[in-house]
Amino acid sequence: MRLLLVEDDARLAEELSKSLRHKAYAVTHVASAKSALDSLATNEFAMMILDLGLPDMDGIELLKIAKKKHSNLAIIILTARDTTTDKIDGLDAGADDYLAKPFDIEELLARLRAMERRFGTASSSLIDIGEVCLDIASHELDVNGDKIELPRREFMLLKALMENHGRIQNKQHLEQTLYEWGEEVSSNAIEVHIHNLRKRLPDKFIKTIRGVGYSVPKQAR
Fold first, then answer.
1. Distance (Å, rounded) from C-alpha 218 to C-alpha 73?
2. pLDDT (average), residues 5-33
3. Where are the beta strands (DSSP E) in the chain?
4. pLDDT tens by residue, 36-46
5. What CA–CA distance (Å, rounded) separates 78 from 204?
6. Is the model's pTM score more than 0.70?
7. pLDDT of residue 2
């Protein structure tokens, strides 16, 4: 799942991004309202974690703009503003949840899971296709009964393909899933990850659509 983190505290953003990626979220981090709006205009996100104290615009204004342009975007406010009035203002502006700093990462993760269920974006812990079973909760890959460990990015790539089995995922979208905003990506990074995955998966499990991207067919064998 793609998630936009809008937070100008670099250290907090780094720690949050690590924790979220560890739970298989595809995180794009930006530090300003302008960058957030640019990201929303060019990428698809299911959820946004929003700090209100941004350097170029009040977070509430960004929230209103984001909700007006992207009504299906789930937004959780993460901020040091913790008065009842602040919470009411945020929720009235369109936020779906509100968590005050300091916070416990496990509580944030629980609230994100609740939002996924509420918006119908939560997936089952297990994705079974043919001989391949991917356990989202434990980050385990099972191929015909054999347990296989995957590096984080290969796990995220396989998850993205299996969650969208039967649909083509283009290279740019997969790069955005695996790498955060502004991170340098080699031209053949996705090809390398696909090559490594294919060595662990049944023959022809991942199909290449030349000039377009990759897919896992619905009846992969």
1. 28
2. 90
3. 2-6, 26-30, 47-50, 74-79, 97-100, 126-129, 132-135, 140-143, 146-148, 169-170, 207-209, 213-215
4. 999 999 888 88
5. 43
6. no
7. 81
Dist. CA 26–CA 2, nearest whole Å: 5
Could you give all domains of the chain from N- to C-terminal order, each with its CATH number?
A: 2-118 (3.40.50.2300), 126-215 (1.10.10.10)
First to last CA, the chain: 25
Instruction: Please list, in sequence order, all residues whose beta carbon lies within 8 angstroms of the beta carbon of residue 137, skipping any fewer than 6 positions away.
Output: 125
- Report the C-alpha gap between 218 and 165 in whole angstroms: 5
Q: How far apart are CA 172 and CA 221, in angstroms?
A: 26
Pick from 4-8, 19-23, 148-152: least confident: 19-23
Concatenate the DSSP letters of all residues of 24-81 into one string: T-EEEEESSHHHHHHHHHHS--SEEEE-SB-SSSBHHHHHHHHHHH-TT-EEEEEES-
* pLDDT, tens only, 145-156: 899 989 988 998
Which two structure tokens, joined as six digits, stand for 93? Answer: 């502006």
In the numeric block, which tokens belong to residue 144? 């015909």
Span 179-190, average pLDDT:
75
Distance (Å, whole) CA 142 – CA 59: 43
Q: Which residue has the higher pLDDT, 77 or 221?
A: 77
User: CA 29 to CA 164: how far, in whole Å?
Assistant: 24
Q: Which helix (H) or strand (E) segment is 15 a member of? A: helix 10-22
